[in-house]
Specification:
Oligomer: single chain
Radius of gyration: 17 Å
Helix content: 40-55%
Strand order of the largest sheet: 3-2-1-4-5-6-7
Largest sheet: 7 strands, parallel
Distance between the termini: 35 Å
Bound molecules: NADP nicotinamide-adenine-dinucleotide phosphate
Length: about 240
């Protein structure tokens, strides 16, 4: 499997979960692969035969074509690609400095769209595989408190949903995963909200979704119902939600 954003807590928990089942090769693609020695050793310890960390920067759009070509040519068929990179950003700073907002949108939406298309092309040629992406419930309805991040995930979510439709019949499927609040590096220092979860629990959801061929999943699963209600709340009421 290939994890884009190889240092992601959710990405690494998911890699561990798949190694515990059947994955034998894991490629961790990250901005600082040299920082992933511990993660590489850990995945070997739990049973992976081959683990490597390679350089990948979601913001460096011009590098994506060569990156994807190199990974697929060196490793042959890849059963699962997980798009796990992303930045939360700082909403207040973003509103004061549009360049900061644009950087969040570039990483979470433009970068994910670009590498998603390159990877999808390789998966389509090999004729099988799952392309999973970490969206967020924040993208289902952008809130005042984090609409920069929320809109980046809304764009990513729509893009990958459409990409999934474009791949129907190719043997390749796209899985859009929508976690709620996950206790990870990204949320360190923030107060957990109701239905908060952990990277290991999100990994369990992803494994189950891949194994069942699902095209979307929520983590934890009850968020699916909660978000159905939240999406339809009248705006004045939605604005008053505490979380
Ligand atoms: N935590 C949550 O509550 C939550 C909820 C819903 C969805 N998600 C989504 O789940 C995904 C994983 O998040 P996480 O919780 O596992 O957080 P995390 O541990 O902070 O992982 C995010 C990863 O993205 C990488 N990254 C950021 N910008 C990058 C770039 N330009 N190129 C390559 N890699 C880049 C970071 O790498 P560096 O180490 O180089 O910074 C980091 O390893 C993200 O897309 C996030 O938006 C998280």
């Amino acid at each position: 499997m290939l994890v884009l954003g190889g240092g992601s807590d959710i990405g690494l928990a998911t890699a561990r979960a798949f190694v515990a089942r059947r994955a034998r090769t894991v490629i961790l693609a990250a901005r600082r692969p040299e920082a992933l020695d511990g993660a590489v050793a850990d995945l070997r310890r739990v049973g992976a035969d081959h683990v490597e960390a390679v350089h990948f920067d979601a913001d460096d759009i011009g590098s994506h074509e060569a990156f994807a070509r190199d990974v697929f040519s060196r490793h042959g068929d890849i059963d699962l690609v997980l798009v796990a990179f992303g930045v939360l950003g700082d909403q207040t700073v973003s509103e004061e400095n549009p360049e900061t907002a644009a950087a969040v949108l570039t990483t979470n939406f433009v970068g994910a769209a670009s590498i998603g298309l390159h990877v999808a092309g390789h998966l389509r040629r090999q004729g099988h595989g799952v392309l999973a992406v970490l969206s967020s419930v924040a993208g289902e309805r952008a809130r005042r408190a984090n609409f920069v991040y929320g809109s980046s995930k809304a764009g990513l979510d729509a893009f990958y949903s459409g990409l999934g439709d474009s791949l129907v019949g190719s043997g390749v499927s796209v899985l859009v995963v929508r976690p709620g609040f996950v206790k990870s590096k990204m949320t360190a220092g923030l107060d957990p909200v109701p239905l908060s979860t952990t990277p290991d629990k999100v990994a369990e959801v992803i494994v189950a979704a891949v194994e069942s061929g699902a095209e979307q999943a929520w983590a934890p699963p009850p968020l699916r119902l909660v978000m159905t209600a939240v999406r339809h709340l009248p705006r004045p009421l939605f604005r008053r939600l505490p979380v």
